[in-house]
Write a structure and sequence with these properties.
heterodimer, A: 113 residues, mainly beta, globular, B: 114 residues, seven-stranded mixed β-sheet, 51% strand
Chain lengths: 113, 114
């Protein structure tokens, strides 16, 4: 079965500092990968997705992620965070184009002024 | 455009009570799904539907029923609530279950079962 691991449950970071949120998945086959963000008291929104092609994917709000097949990772990065980036971030995977979306446990990003 | 609408936002139940969580979308999406969100466990898929009249089980279907009589609505029924069902529930939809489509989420229903 597919599984998604997010190694850090909480990440505090100072405003304007860079951040990396880690995601690893378990699969021996090709997968489709996603990052979603959940702002307080809201539903999830898609940040970015990797389907195929370039391993560096750019998303909304200045976030990007890099797919590394050999390390089965899909880490999310932002070079300079803002207070408004404080949220819960979820990594997710689909095994095939018509498969269920499986979510990781989430990483809570807190941006400190 | 309302998107995905969930009601109620909050609900408290006693063990053994039944209730229905409502989900409606106005985007003509074929695919609809229910997730529950628990601390440290992320979102787990309860049930999903790929179109009116078609439903299927997700990762954690026990204790929940669904039906899809229209494209717009996908209610989630708790037949006999248990404390283990205390959670935040999210409804999500997409045009179809295609990787090129993204999931649109409702704002959630916070359920407490005493």
């Amino acid at each position: 079965a597919q599984s998604v691991t997010q190694l850090d449950s909480q990440v505090p970071v100072f405003e304007e500092a860079p951040v990396e949120l880690r995601c690893n998945y378990s699969s021996s086959v090709s997968v489709y990968l996603f990052w979603y963000v959940q702002y307080p008291n809201q539903g999830l929104q898609l940040l970015l997705k990797y389907l195929s092609g370039s391993t560096l994917v750019k998303g909304i709000n200045g976030f990007e992620a890099e797919f590394n097949k050999s390390q089965t990772s899909f880490h999310l990065r932002k070079p300079s965070v803002h207070i408004s980036d404080t949220a819960e971030y979820f990594c997710a995977v689909m095994k095939t184009s018509y498969d269920k979306v499986i979510f990781g446990p989430g990483t809570s990003l807190s941006v400190i002024p | 455009n309302a998107g995905v609408t969930q009601t109620p936002k909050f609900q408290v139940l006693k063990t053994g009570q039944s209730m229905t969580l409502q989900c409606a979308q106005d985007m003509n999406h074929e695919y609809m799904s229910w997730y529950r969100q628990d601390p440290g466990m992320g979102l787990r898929l309860i049930h999903y539907s790929v179109g009116a009249g078609i439903t299927d089980q997700g990762e954690v279907p026990n204790g929940y029923n669904v039906s899809r009589s229209t494209t717009e609505d996908f209610p989630l029924r708790l037949l006999s609530a248990a404390p283990s069902q205390t959670s935040v529930y999210f409804c999500a939809s997409s045009y179809d279950r295609n990787i090129n489509e993204k999931l649109f989420f409702g704002s959630g229903t916070q359920l407490s079962v005493l």
